[in-house]
Amino acid sequence: VQLVESGGGMVQPGGSLRLSCAASGFTFSNYGMNWVRQAPGKGPEWVSSINTYGSTYYADSVKGRFIIARDNAKNTLYLQMNSLKPEDTALYYCARPVGTGQYDYWGQGTQVTVSS
Q: In the 8-state DSSP scheme, what is residue 27?
């Protein structure tokens, strides 16, 4: 199993970024997937989930600003991040969940920095 994130970078407040997570080594369409972030000095924070049916879920802190999506034909998970705030600064991971708050595989992460 391999999860490889990309798309991070530095952006000004109010800007947008689109993260991607390329999955391999398993049948991507059979699994729900999550985005999790970790800010400096803090623990991991769940951001968003998408299940195998395409139903989506968001943390209150990102609801209305972030959009999670998946392309099963490309084995890729996405996170469209709009109206970014400095508090969104973190290392963003895609992760395969095995239960509530538990994951069996993580990517290496992609850094998102929101700063003026």
A: -
